[in-house]
Every structure is written in structure tokens, then in C-alpha cells.
Specification:
344 residues, alpha/beta, Aspartate Aminotransferase, domain 2, Aspartate Aminotransferase, domain 1, seven-stranded mixed sheet, four-stranded antiparallel sheet, 11 strands, binds pyridoxal-5'-phosphate
């Protein structure tokens, strides 16, 4: 039997058909490269409707967007306060440190979130030359643990960050899922609340590739065109990223895709909760489901359905959904898990 990989990551899904069509429609004639084409201009106009008066730069990868945004705001003796579970801290192979020379100041995470008390704690190091100078706070929305910061939590983090002379970065690899779940626009949960820099995700939302580095704080963008090139994120045929963003945001495609992914996670959560011996370890808030399953059952089912074991000690697994998740695959997984649970 072929292994089902849909729950492994939202990166395992293909591309939204509408995005495929947009790529194809872009595929004619000649244009200027490196972002000096018409589609890039049009796409930025479309994004401005969602982001307001922000500066937008197209990037290749989420890691690249995060790293280049850190480089735009920090000097090598400065650092980024982030929860220990942050993608920049655990899943970017040290790229932020290697390419920016800045230290990540990771602190204990609470359900994937940053407690603002740690910002104040690091603020005590300001001005002491023996300590890395904290200049940025980075939070992910949605978080790597599938949780959401509330509007009040983001505002409070932004307030404390700015009060201490620091910048707020948001890793928005899954910001469409977050905005959809919160019933808000992207701007309402980022720039409007004091986020200075946003890594705006496209890939997990249903694009083939492409992310955007967004400057709500435009002063920080002054040297960004050089930084993007040096960090190898300037795609020559950049019009294909632009075409995808334009299509994603020119109507509510982003919302429909995120809404489906989130709804599928809610359904998966319901199905798992109903299985004797399986418990949801976190409330599904976006497109991630975390469940505790007895190890002997994990060992059987993981051979048929791919997923991450998130916490080995707790036998906690992570199951992701996407725009492409089908109800029938959730049913197949839940039915099979229920069957396996009867044998363990
Ligand atoms: C929270 C978060 N940030 C950023 C990224 C971007 O990763 P990549 O560099 O693979 O595009 C991911 C992808 O898994 C992610 O989950």
C-alpha cells in the first residue's frame, strides 16, 4: 500500500489549480528579469490592498525571508529573542546565525508562544558590551505548535518590544491560516498591531514557491535590495513568484484555501478525539492537529500514513492539513487508527 503523505506537512501538497493556471498564463513573451516586470508591479499593488502602505519584496524561501529580514534590521553584535520552538531556531540549520552573525536568544516557549516577560529580561543587557544586544523579537503566527497569538497578545508583545527599542518580526509562513481562523485580514494581525517586519508565506498557502519579505517599518528597507541579492534570494525569473502572489490575493483564493485547510484540521481533530485511547494534546486552532497516541499504535500506523512524531517522550504526533486535504483521507486515517487501537 502506498503511504499517504498529506499529514506530514502542508509542504507535501501540490499547487492550487488557480495558481498553476496563473503560472501558465505568465508563461509567454519576454519581460525584464529580477523584478522589473509588469506582473511584479501589479502583484505588489494587489498585496498593498492586503498590507497597506508596506514595502514588499519577493523571496524564494521562508528561511531566506527570515534571514534577510534579520540582516536588514540587525548588526552582527545584536540578537533576536524568539521562543525555543521557532522555525528560525530549530529548522533553519543555523542559517540566521551563519548569514547574519547575529545570535538567536531563544527562550522557553509556552504552547509555541513567546511570553513577553522574556523581552524585559533581555532588555537588562542593553548597553553592556559583554552581552549580545537584543534588537529584534521574532514570533510566528500561526506558531510551529499550531497555536495562535491573540490580537491582544501581539499588541502587548509589540508594545514591550518597542518600549525597549527593539523591532518586532513575524514569521508568517502560515499567516493565511492564522488570519482566516481569526476572521481578520493579514494586516490586522501584523502591521496594524505593531509588527515591523513580516515574512509572508506563499508556499504553504498553495503556491509552488515564493514568499515575501514585508516591511511595515519602511525605514528598515533602505538597503534591502542589496541584502536580498547577497542572500541569494533574488530570482531572475521573479515574475513567476509575482504571478502567484497576484493570483492568490486578487480575490479570496487565499482565504478559501486556508479555510479549507483549517476546517480539515478541525474535522481530523474531531475524528481523533472520538477514538478511545487517543487524546488531542492541543486544541486545533489552524491547520495542525497534535495528538497523543500509544507508541505501539504509532509504530503501526506511521508505516501507512506519514506524520511527524513531535514529542517522543509524550508520544505526541503532529498531523498537518492543507488546501488539498480530502475528507476521505481523514476518514481513512481515523478508521484505520481506530482499528489499530483495538489491537494494542
Ligand atoms: C514557521 C515556519 N517558518 C518558515 C518556514 C519556511 O521554510 P522554507 O525555508 O522551507 O520555505 C516554515 C516551513 O516549514 C515554517 O514552518
Amino acid at each position: 500500500m502506498k503511504m499517504y503523505l498529506g499529514f506530514f506537512s502542508d509542504n507535501c501538497a501540490g499547487v492550487l489549480p488557480e495558481i498553476m493556471e496563473a503560472i501558465s498564463a505568465e508563461n509567454s513573451g519576454f519581460t525584464r528579469p529580477y523584478g522589473y516586470d509588469h506582473t511584479t508591479g501589479e502583484s505588489k499593488e494587489v498585496l498593498r490592498e492586503h498590507l497597506g502602505d508596506a514595502e514588499v519584496n519577493f523571496m524564494l524561501t521562508g528561511t531566506g525571508a527570515n534571514v534577510a529580514l534579520i540582516a536588514a534590521a540587525l548588526k552582527p553584535f545584536q540578537g533576536v529573542i524568539c521562543p525555543e520552538t521557532a522555525h528560525i531556531n530549530v529548522d533553519e540549520c543555523g542559517a540566521p546565525e551563519r548569514f547574519t552573525s547575529c545570535k538567536l536568544l531563544s527562550v522557553p516557549a509556552e504552547n509555541g508562544k513567546l511570553n513577553p516577560k522574556y523581552i524585559t529580561k533581555f532588555a537588562h543587557n542593553v548597553g553592556f558590551e559583554h552581552n549580545v544586544q537584543p534588537v529584534m523579537v521574532s514570533i510566528s503566527q500561526a506558531t510551529e505548535a499550531g497555536s495562535l497569538y491573540t490580537v491582544d497578545e501581539i499588541s502587548e508583545i509589540a508594545r514591550i518590544t518597542h518600549e525597549n527599542g527593539m523591532y518586532l518580526h513575524m514569521d508568517g509562513a502560515r499567516i493565511t491560516n492564522a488570519a482566516c481562523a481569526m476572521g481578520k485580514t493579514i494586516k490586522e494581525i501584523s502591521g496594524d498591531l505593531g509588527v515591523d517586519l513580516l515574512s509572508l508565506g506563499g508556499t504553504k498557502a498553495g503556491m509552488m514557491f515564493g514568499e515575501a519579505a514585508v516591511f511595515f517599518n519602511k525605514e528598515l528597507a533602505a538597503d534591502f535590495k542589496y541584502i536580498r541579492k547577497q542572500s541569494m534570494q533574488l530570482l531572475s525569473k521573479s515574475r513567476y513568484i509575482a504571478a502567484q502572489f497576484k493570483r492568490m490575493f486578487e480575490d479570496d483564493l487565499w482565504l478559501k484555501a486556508a479555510g479549507h485547510a483549517n476546517a480539515m484540521a478541525a474535522y481530523l481533530g474531531e475524528r481523533l478525539e472520538a477514538i478511545n485511547g487517543v487524546t488531542l494534546s492541543r486544541k486545533p486552532e489552524v491547520n495542525a492537529v497534535f495528538a497523543q497516541i500509544p507508541r505501539s499504535a504509532i509504530d503501526v500506523i506511521i508505516k501507512e500514513f506519514g506524520f511527524y512524531i513531535w514529542n517522543e517522550e509524550l508520544n505526541e504526533v503532529r498531523l498537518m492539513t492543507s488546501f488539498a486535504t480530502e475528507k476521505k483521507d481523514i476518514d481513512a486515517f481515523a478508521d484505520r487508527l481506530a482499528e489499530v487501537m483495538k489491537t494494542v
